[in-house]
């Protein structure tokens, strides 16, 4: 069994990069506070501006891969084999991690929706009951597909729906299918990522971005990487090479996505998933020591669930404040990015301290003392896009 440290600095930093891309993307959208028309657009190369501004969707898929990797690693550490998954422990841990903060955020979003605050109030074809019901049943994507884009502050719930639907069925498949058949099914799902996306016409913007199966394909890449990491531990030199290759793959997709898309026959998402998987395997095989200069990024990774669910409060507030102060001018929009990120992290830290953290620590303490339920804490075992997004086991 692969040794797992309480937290893995590299994985936390990877999640930190992903959540940072999500927050910046939501600020940089053309109808909010874009970077390109600002003074920064004249100072920085267009490719760098685009890489910073428009990779939120790709960042969510990074989260999906991390999620599959960490949850599978945690299951293997706790139960020894996927064929012995403890369903009660799994589902209870999921609920303990996800529901407290989700319920608090839904209550807050509902209050702001009832007050008619822009970005929170339902659209013409939507209702508050519909938004709440789909969020709690993890059918948010279906609801958006039928009614159109959800309010901005609610819209982030789409990735949580994908993850939780996957994790309702995944442990059942682990128990029902022989290992070779389970692995074959995961490989087929992982390889089907691009074809599954191609089934949705690009004209259907909501479903093209938020269909369930492509996101599940990315999670499957993470599951397969965890299974591989259990049986293969690369040496230090191999791990460094793996990390370099994985990092280069991510940089290519983030910085030169259109070239990867064109020359790899629309295979950019495969490069993204494989690159993320390579980084995860390398990080677990040889966990790096924390570095002072990266601790802020690792902290963002630790708070990725809290950040993902709450950052739109800060984003929308920042946009409203900037428009009240600067009007239609976009020359100085770039100056609000760092403060907005800092405030988002402070809010996420408060939510972790008061809502999600206490219950999670109580659960971990109880399971650690219970025979048969002792859990080796997974490196960076937490959040990813959706649930941190987003500990996820």
Structure description:
The protein contains 19 helices and no strands. It has helices at residues 9-28, 39-43, 46-53, 56-79, 87-114, 128-136, 140-147, 152-155, 157-176, 179-191, 193-198, 205-210, 212-231, 236-255, 257-263, 268-285, 295-302, 304-326, 337-369. It is globular and about 60 Å long. The longest helix is centred in the last third of the chain and has 33 residues, at 337-369. Helix content is 71%, strand content 0%. By secondary structure, the protein is mainly α.
Order of H and E elements: HHHHHHHHHHHHHHHHHHH
Radius of gyration: 20 Å
Question: What distance lies between the first and last C-alpha atoms, to the nearest angstrom?
Answer: 17 Å
Structural class, from secondary structure content?
A: mainly alpha
Mean pLDDT: 90
State the total count of DSSP E strands. Answer: 0
Quick one: overall form? globular
> Count of helices?
19
Main sheet: strands, sense, barrel: none
- The amount of helix comes to over 70%
Beta content:
under 5%
- Uncertain segments are 1-5, 371-393
Essential attributes:
mainly alpha, disordered C terminus, about 70% helix, 19 helices, single chain, disordered N terminus, about 400 residues
Q: Brief overview, please?
A:
The protein is mainly α and 393 residues long. Helices cover 71% and strands 0% of the residues. Residues 1-5 and 371-393 have low confidence and may be disordered.
